[in-house]
Design goal:
Structural class: alpha/beta
Bound molecules: guanosine-5'-monophosphate, magnesium ion
Number of strands: 10
Low-confidence stretches: none
Helix content: 10-25%
Strand content: 25-35%
Shape: globular
Radius of gyration: 17 Å
Distance between the termini: 26 Å
Order of helices and strands: EHEHEEEEHEEEE
CATH class: Alpha Beta
CATH topology: Rossmann fold
Number of helices: 3
């Protein structure tokens, strides 16, 4: 789709199958949790999904459409890659978190877990709002790169420490619409300093 793409790490078919599995696992676990409280997946005001923008937008769109669960979506924006660099400079919240998370079952979604700074930050601020439960789901996990001790409850694919684009992940704002998880040609990432 883009001539700058060098290699595909995860194909469209693999993503589709795995996102379906994740949807089933998350729904199953939420069902068990709500069961214990005498509630169901269709009861109102229980479940809040918080996708981290902008990278999680395609993941969350595909995931929630495979979940017959009454949920609300509340976006949060975290900035971690300022400018053109691909090396993490730490995370900061660029939008407010939803206020009313107390007693809710919260599922935070991100495209990729890398240094862990983004999800450690979100985990900390969401926990302060006293949710009934907090789960983290990521499409991709670069396990070897952690700077903060945070793990996801649901992982789509573990990938090596390479800079990837596609399915929501960008380089310099582009390639989010590439349908596969892919690595760009080295000469397409001139600012790469990582
Ligand atoms: P962390 O805070 O865990 O280092 O990184 C999480 C965020 O960094 C992700 O939400 C994503 O936006 C960005 N990120 C980490 N690795 C990659 C990558 O390989 N490609 C792209 N496009 N973004 C990444
Ligand atoms: Mg992100």
């Amino acid at each position: 789709m883009f001539p700058e793409v060098d290699r595909v790490l995860v194909s469209e078919a693999q993503i589709r199958e795995r996102v379906g599995e994740l949807a089933s696992e998350i729904a199953r676990d939420l069902r068990a949790e709500l069961d214990a409280q005498g509630q169901t997946l269709q009861d109102e005001d229980q479940i809040v999904f918080i996708p981290i923008m902008t990278g999680a937008m395609i993941f969350v769109a595909d995931l929630v459409r495979q979940m017959p669960v009454k949920l609300s979506l509340d976006l949060v924006t975290v900035s971690s890659y300022p400018g053109e660099t691909v090396t993490s400079k730490g995370a900061h919240l660029a939008s407010d978190l939803p206020e009313n998370l107390a007693g809710k079952h919260v599922v935070v979604l991100d495209d990729i877990l890398d240094s862990g700074r983004t999800l450690a930050l979100i985990k900390r601020v969401v926990s302060e709002r006293k949710p009934a439960s907090l789960r983290i789901a990521v499409l991709l996990d670069k396990k070897t790169n952690r700077a903060e001790a945070v793990e996801a409850d649901y992982v789509g694919f573990e990938i090596p420490d390479e800079f990837v684009v596609g399915y929501g992940l960008d380089y310099n704002g582009y390639y989010r619409n590439h349908p596969e998880i892919a690595v760009l040609r080295p000469d397409a990432i001139p600012a790469r300093d990582g």
